[in-house]
Write a structure and sequence with these properties.
This protein has about 425 residues and is of the alpha/beta class. The protein is built from 13 helices and 15 strands. The protein binds zinc ion (ZN).
Amino acid sequence: MPRSTSPGAFRIHASNLQRRIDRLAEVATTRLAYSEEDIRGRQLAMEMMREVGLVVSVDAAGNILGRRAGSRNLPPILFGSHIDTVREAGRFDGVLGVVAAIECVAVLQATDLLTLHPLEVVIFANEEGQNFGALCGSRAAVGDISSEDLQRSDASGRTLSDAIRGVGGKPEELESSIYADGRFCAFVELHIEQGGELDRLGIPIGAVEGISGIQHTDVLISGIANHSGTTTMEARHDALAAAAELILVVREMALQLHSCRVANVGRLVVSPNSVNIVPGSVELTVELRDMQATRIARTMEAIKRRTEDIGERYGVSFEFLDRKFMEPVPAHPAVLAAIEESCQALQFPFQRIPSGAGHDAQMMARIAPMGMIFVPSVGGISHSSKEFTEAEDCARGAEVLLETILRLDRLPDEAAIGVAYS
Ligand SMILES: [Zn+2]
């Protein structure tokens, strides 16, 4: 008989989690996707999965799945993250979500608890996209990788297809093994925040409201290049000075006007880029991120309006080219509620926060109700060897993950999620 499932009945021991994090770090801290180090990390992770009784398989896209049976014939609850890294990475990005998922299963195993739904732990291939683009494994799993993508090659000339095959995937079967909508009951991912909000507020858990949408718009500012010694200040058509004002407007939109969550100009090309020539043209990219597409659109419109005045004062013209837009991906209300109720039951302070970074969860949201749990990154540092999350925070995150899974498992039936989902 399964034992009691009262909240907090299952402790995740911080030391067990740390041991698993250490073991993966010992393989190598830089494990670029599909590299030898990544493959060794994957082998170790699969070993850990088998140790806790998971039945391990690799899907066509090279994602690792570990299954634990449930007592009923229901769609599995999927949870996990990734273990591939950026160059000179930290120890927690992705890894925490995977080792916590394994530790959750270890705890269930030790206490003999059988869930109603089968449980599946997933390790997505190539989340970081240091080659072949980000979220490769999760994109492939939902049918977002084309046959042209598979033929693309990295700097070494290896194709994505070969890379997937190298980690045990079957690129030729990619199309036939796409995860169908409804295949999973839900997807939950625990991840370090990567930003500094939770750390700053001293709050241990972030209930992620969703993954921010992103707008990239190229702006071409055209003035007139001329001799910087002979052209009077009044006669100039200085594209770079106009760009400087535009950059401050973009910053003001998020910082003072709160028109969108964050705004950035991180790319600038000045022409002719010479010390003694008044800049004739500038090309830059404005990036806006927010949880609401309408706020992103309104902010971009406001920025465009402000350039009318800038253009007049500097004698330059502005041209806008919307290059990329990614819709915000909200967390599923039922999964978000399960996360927040778990925090309450475990008496962990929590706060709703958006994710500024992309995650595999945004792909899984296409086929399953999705939710994410964040834990603090000290100083908001990530993608760096200085990345750090306190052991106790890691353990609290894992306990919320386990409690969330058990709550989702006990929801009356699929309809409870299905209704809210549609
Ligand atoms: Zn990550």
